[in-house]
Amino acid sequence: MEDIEDLLVGSGGGAPTGFRLPITAVGLNPKKNKNKNKPNPNPNGNSNKLSQIQDPLAPLSPKIPGTQTIYIKTFGCSHNQSDSEYMAGQLSAFGYPLSDNPEEADLWLINTCTVKSPSQSAMDTLIAKGKGAKKPLVVAGCVPQGSRDIKELEGVSIVGVQQIDRVVEIVEETLKGHEVRLLSRKTLPALDLPKVRKNKFVEILPINVGCLGACTYCKTKHARGHLGSYTVDGLVGRVKSVIADGVKEIWLSSEDTGAYGRDIGANLPILLNAIVAELPSDASTMLRIGMTNPPFILEHLKEIAEVLRHPCVYSFLHVPVQSGSDAVLTAMNREYTVSEFKTVVDILTELVPGMQIATDIICGFPGETDEDFTQTLSLIKLYKFPQVHISQFYPRPGTPAARMKKVPSTVVKRRSRDLTSVFEAFTPYVGMEGRVERIWITEVATDGIHLVGHTKGYVQVLVAAPESMLGTSAIVKITYVGRWSVFGEVIETIPHINDTVSGNERPKQEKSFSGLNHYETSACSTKSENCCCGPESCGGQAEKCAVTKNDVQLEDRNSRNLIGWLLRKRKNHVEKPVENEIGLGSQKKQAQTQGSLGEWGVVDRALLGGMLVSFLTIVTLLLHLGFRILSSN
User: Fold this and answer.
1) What is the DSSP string of 135-197?
2) What does 309-343 look like in DSSP terms, one character per residue?
3) Tens-place pLDDT, residues 601-611
4) Rounded CA gap, 218 and 202, in Å?
5) Taking a C-beta distance cutoff of 8 angstroms, is the pair 155, 174 a contact?
6) Is 0.85 topped by the overall pTM?
7) CA–CA gap between residue 390 and residue 376 (Å, rounded)
8) 477 in Cβ contact with 495 (< 8 Å)
């Protein structure tokens, strides 16, 4: 079946953003009616489905568009996550209930990642499961866009990465039994579509699609295509809107942030300065700059460093190097040298106090020698990056690297283990204990006890605090530092003069949906994702690597009320905090004794004082009552 373009009956234009087109306006492949020779039970000659749609007085039924439950599963990067949030927002706006339970859903929407084989294999498994359960399926994302003819996509509807604003039409037609394909488009989806955020305090803002690179191993370029940037005015307008909605973190997402604007006569510093000018002066909303490859920021390093020093911008940047060998970088067609990567790291580290840089490494790229790998080890040892996203090479069909002579798998695995061992020996947070830092709190940790905040350098800090502190910033004292986690104690909550919604209030349009938590994140290990653009575009995980997992579950709200918080806080004075490897998913717990039972904090003293006052009051009342009784006798 040919790809279906955007068609409108009787016109050459498209429907307004977020509105459904007439049935005949969506190109589709109707399923054959196996019962076409059976008598029509409708005496008027019309099908039951048609009569239900045409009769406004007909009772609601599961066949009415907008009443079916949708399950959404997201694989891959932050850009994919943003796409899923936009699709969920449109479906929710048209009345479709969203669920994180696939069994109860009437249709599955699977947003896919094509970075490497494990991601696509997971998609294949889920599609097979859906077909086995006879669920209508819609597959979105990079897999159908880049590999539309694979057999796993037979019999399912597919939607391209630039067709996400047509998801309502595709879902409706799929629920009717039609197979729909929408892949081609010449314009970018609007930024002001309805959105259901995974985290209501975090806005993932795509600033462009595609990239200018041509990495020999990257499949994502086949899906996302050439660079296409949103306008500065459009992005600034979106920033103003989400700040008004109560968002506390804005993540700029892209296949390559550094390439922004080169197709529209702009550049990254112009965009960053325009966005920073709109951020609240009290730093109640923070900006996180997304992944950028070295070539396109070399000429703007000083301007970018100035932005990273701004109080409202995290001093953090994800710059994937992929290899410490120039020979391997040339084979990858990365378009920079190791020396140029070092220049980026050295200048940003020198000009930005507390600068944190994350990077990526691919082990076992075709042609990589032992000497090449030794150079990579030396580079990682030199800078001791706090976050390193390590991945084994995976050949992707249709890429030049897939045709190159492969390194034996045993060698690839050994190199991956060696590099992981080197990285895990680092102690990046030593020296932080006892320091006082400001953090921005946006989510609940997977242990269901701590809240997750980040310092200006985007170091994750876990604090025991009530959920009412979500969406706020606070001054904390770092009380414990482990290999993967940093724990702190809240000293003071900072009031935000620019707050427009309270911490417990949801913006009307921007809902929170736990089903969107189902997207894959990886640790700094061999399970990470990579592409020519790095994990921000194709895995998205390195920016939280080794410190956090975004799959946050609010499982037991009753245990996180004020009383539970106070009891946990008292316990934290008795025991050393658990080093909770939340980012790695393994959650290693190594409890250690912190000190004597005599160490009392401010909250403990307040509780004790309150108890004493209550006790004395009761005693006084009893004595007074006793004297009254005696005097009356």
Assistant:
1) --EEEEEHHHHH-TT-GGGTTSEEE-TT-GGGHHHHHHHHHTTEEEEE---SSPPPTTS--EE
2) TSTTB-SEEE---B-S-HHHHHHHT-SS-HHHHHH
3) 555 677 778 88
4) 28
5) no
6) no
7) 11
8) no
